[in-house]
Write a structure and sequence with these properties.
Largest sheet: 22 strands, antiparallel, barrel
Number of strands: 44
Low-confidence stretches: 1-38, 296-303, 563-569, 696-701
Oligomer: single chain
Strand content: over 45%
Structural class: mainly beta
Mean pLDDT: 85
Distance between the termini: 26 Å
């Protein structure tokens, strides 16, 4: 059943169409003309509409272009969407998504996929699920910029990204195979990406569609200093190769992804699609580099001995990770005559586990670990998320100057996690009693969270005249968060003779921890939009919209007493006004953060020139951010936590253009400028290493910290102020009807702060630009493309963990010849130059 829509009953909004990069392969001129002539159909406003008629800032790229250009995930599109920045940290650590500078958190993930920063929601079809989805067999990807709170709810205060899959087709048999191979300039292996798609009509009203793809990326980051045996090998004796087990190209990625969909249309008024998605990833290590360690001296003035190349990381242990995502989705669309009723039901699970080096953090806590000459610590994480989602909505279809949408939404998110730290050899080194638990378990944390969100929403649009439209929207939301958590230090207990601690598996966590109410909140979000269409189809619009993000619980117990480790506590969180051991008082509420909200004001225009051959679009925006959730570090134990600041704002301009110079040659480009800053002081937001630790004068001043105040006007981290992209493509037809295609593109972004205001002597990521080029041959049912990505082999850093002040030498004890080399500061890097080819064949 084809969706019904007319110019009169659309909720019209204006657009900024995605400027496509010309990297791995070109796209057809017919497809480009289709974009310029308003032929791309999207459903971002819960109606099927031409993208040129939508008055929100939306970008879209079709499935054919995704496949032809070889885009693997959303991060490869980001540089070409004005206002969107993704801190690509590789598959293991996930990607932080920042829209219009809306971010106050440090841009690095210590473990796993997390939620992309929480200000941008991702949807798989109709279901909200944060997953870095492989872009296989998609009809299109839609990127909505600015708050989408009325139609999409929580997590969309910055925007939304929608992966729209191809539905099974009742009329078309299809079987297509694809294969690609490429190699990195800094890697030794050949990477491959293979897959197939099929579509099988079973009857006139029942069809199946499926796809299966496997990416085997052989990596480009070396781990030269992995110890042979944690707790026995000396991790800082770099001159003695017997201590190490170097790993070449450690950051491998093996991703198996697929989809199977069944579609049934028993009548013209009912259409149901049941889909199973899965994505299983195995990651060998991080896309991270210790290169900056070689260039930044230790804080006490002497050079660190770790000498790292650009694509080497100084980790002491392997850091593998596994992530499995599954989604069952049922979408039912019923034509009621006066309206279209849609039911979207989803059940998803995400399971993840992995290991990471924890040596640097444990040494910097000044407990005692540096006294153990062969100390190496590591953490094993195990977590699971279960999501149930249900949405019902009615969309009017009658021919009328008045159109409307009403709906109801329910989402339940259950999260369970364990974190276990191991310090091999520490029990024996300290002569402690033998515990009942196995292994040198130093730390055991268990966390549970259950978030329930309910809302009702609606929009009403009225065509005041044939040219002037006005839309009003609102959403009432109500969410509740329940939490439970415990933290134990089994080795510390051994000093007091406590040997009976028993850890438990993730499967038993719900029997061990009982949830309790943590926070709840409700509210109303509003939206007002008006647009006016001038002669020739040129349109201007104005929008006011709001968005929100649910609160955060930091999971620790409140500190008792006025100094660290009081009454046996080794980890706790402070409340404002509590006395500290140095005589000061705590400023921030470390227990968690409440919901934050955004008010967005936007003006935009879409224009076409030269009989539609030239398109110029633009938007200016101002966003007022109240109670922004900001990242900081706890006073006790240096744990990453989230708290509320008072306010921030972001403003800027976004431009994009497309020019069809001739039938064979096309040019595109985009530009954005974003100015994002705090608008109120945040006392004590950043903890800066202060030189008041316990180390000797010969070796420096250690890892003690002092609070640093963030100030009104400080720039927000996570995105560049300026970014742009340009590209062009040319297609040369042959007498046989086949075509030879050429394309090239370049994307540049300015520098990016890693901590708000650049405080705490943090590292600023330098600006960078990356170029791609391709040449290929396209026939009726097959194509072969050769490509070069990152043509000039630019060394590009996308995020940073910690600050250079963390890289110090802790002194050697008891005759140990090697001081402990703390190398906690590192940067995540994008891939070096890759050269490869892609082949596709479609069976007729």
């Amino acid at each position: 059943m084809e969706p019904k829509f007319t110019l009169k009953n659309r909720l019209k909004l204006t657009v900024s169409i995605l400027a496509l990069p010309l990297g791995s392969i070109g796209y057809s001129m017919a497809a480009q003309a289709q974009v310029i002539n308003d032929e791309i159909i999207v459903t971002a406003t819960r109606r099927a509409e031409s993208i040129q008629d939508i008055p929100i800032n939306i970008s879209a790229i079709g499935g054919e272009q995704i496949e032809q250009q070889g885009f693997g995930d959303i991060s490869e599109l980001a540089a070409f969407v004005p206002g969107l920045n993704i801190a690509d940290q590789g598959g293991r650590d996930g990607n932080r998504i920042v829209v219009r500078g809306l971010n106050v958190e440090d841009i690095q993930n210590s473990f796993g996929q997390e939620n992309g920063g929480g200000t941008v929601a991702t949807y798989v079809g109709e279901i909200p699920l944060f997953v870095d989805l492989r872009l296989n067999d998609l009809q299109r990807v839609e990127v909505l910029l600015g708050p989408q709170g009325t139609l999409y709810g929580a997590g969309t205060m910055g925007g939304a990204i929608r992966y729209i899959p191809n539905k099974p087709d009742f009329d078309r048999q299809l079987f297509e195979v694809r294969a690609g191979a490429y190699s990195y300039s800094e890697g030794s292996g050949i990477s491959t990406d293979t897959g197939f798609t099929f579509n099988a009509p079973v009857s006139d009203n029942f069809a199946l569609r499926g796809s299966l793809d496997f990416q085997n990326d052989r990596g480009f980051i070396d781990y030269p200093f992995v110890v042979r045996q944690p707790g026995a090998s000396e991790p800082d004796a770099f001159a003695d190769a017997s201590n190490f087990r170097p790993i070449k190209d450690a950051n491998t990625e093996e991703i198996l992804s697929g989809r199977l969909a069944a579609r049934w249309q028993p009548s013209d008024r009912l259409d149901a699609t049941f889909t199973y998605y899965f994505q299983e990833g195995e990651y060998g290590g991080r896309n991270t580099s210790s290169f900056r360690t070689a260039n930044i001296p230790a804080t006490f003035g002497s050079q660190l001995t770790l000498d790292s190349g650009k694509y080497e990381f100084g980790g002491r242990v392997e850091e593998p990770n596994e992530r499995d995502s599954d989604l069952l989705a049922l979408e039912i669309v019923a034509d009621l005559g006066f309206a279209e009723l849609t039911s979207a039901t989803g059940l998803a699970t995400v399971e993840e586990n992995g290991q990471r080096d924890q040596t640097d953090l444990l040494i910097s806590l000044d407990y005692y670990y540096e006294t153990f000459p062969t100390f190496t610590g590591f953490t094993f994480e195990d977590e699971e998320t279960e999501i149930f989602n249900q949405e019902l909505r009615l969309v009017s279809t009658a021919e009328s100057r008045l159109s409307w949408i009403i709906g109801a939404f329910y989402n339940k998110n259950k999260y369970n996690a364990l974190s276990s730290e191991f310090t091999p050899g520490v029990i024996e080194f300290n002569g402690l009693p033998t515990p009942q638990f196995s292994g040198d378990l130093e730390y055991f944390e268990a966390d549970r969270r259950e978030l329930e969100e309910k809302s009702v929403f609606g929009e009403v649009a009225f065509d005041v005249t044939d040219a002037w439209d006005v839309t009003f929207g609102a959403r009432y939301y109500d969410y509740s968060l329940e939490t439970a958590g415990t933290t134990d230090f089994p080795i510390f207990g051994l000093f007091d003779g406590v040997t009976d601690f028993q850890p438990y598996p993730l499967a038993d966590i719900e029997n061990q921890l009982t949830l309790a109410p943590n926070q709840s909140e409700d509210g109303v979000l509003f939206k007002v939009n008006t647009s006016y269409e001038f002669g020739g189809g040129n349109t201007v619009y104005a929008t006011f919209s709001q968005g929100y993000r649910v609160g955060v619980n930091n999971g620790g117990e409140v500190c008792v007493g006025d100094y660290l480790n009081d009454d046996g506590q080794a980890l706790c969180l402070y409340t404002p006004g509590q006395e500290l051991r140095d005589g000061g008082t705590a400023i921030l509420d470390e227990r968690g953060a409440s919901a934050d909200t955004v008010d967005n004001f936007e003006l935009g225009a879409k224009t076409t020139w030269l009989d539609g051959a030239l398109r110029l679009n633009g938007a200016i925006f101002f966003m007022k951010w109240d109670n922004p959730q900001v990242s900081t570090t706890s006073i006790n134990a240096g744990t990453s936590i989230t708290v509320n600041a008072e306010s921030a704002e972001t403003k800027g301009v976004e431009l994009d253009a497309a020019w069809q110079v001739s039938d064979r040659f096309g040019l595109r480009g985009n530009f954005s400028y974003t100015d994002a800053n705090l608008t109120a002081d945040v006392p004590g937001l950043v903890r800066q290493i202060n030189g008041q630790g316990n180390f000797t004068a010969d070796f420096g001043y250690g890892f003690g910290t002092d609070p640093v105040n963030a100030r009104d006007g400080d720039r927000l981290p996570g995105s560049p102020k300026t970014q742009f992209s340009v590209f062009g493509d040319y297609r040369h037809p042959l007498s046989s009807g086949d075509e030879v295609v050429f394309n090239a593109g370049y994307a540049w972004q300015g520098d990016v702060l890693t901590i708000v205001g650049g405080l705490g002597e943090s590292y600023t990521l330098p600006s960078y630009g990356r170029a791609n080029a391709a040449i290929g041959y396209e026939a009726d049912n097959w194509s072969l493309i050769g490509f070069v990505d990152n043509l000039f082999n630019d060394f590009s850093e996308s995020s940073a963990a910690n600050t250079p002040l963390n890289n110090q030498l802790a002194p050697a004890f008891d005759g140990d010849a090697n001081p402990a080399n703390v190398r906690r500061f590192r940067t995540n890097v994008l891939p070096p130059r890759s050269i490869g080819a892609r082949f596709k064949y479609r069976f007729q």
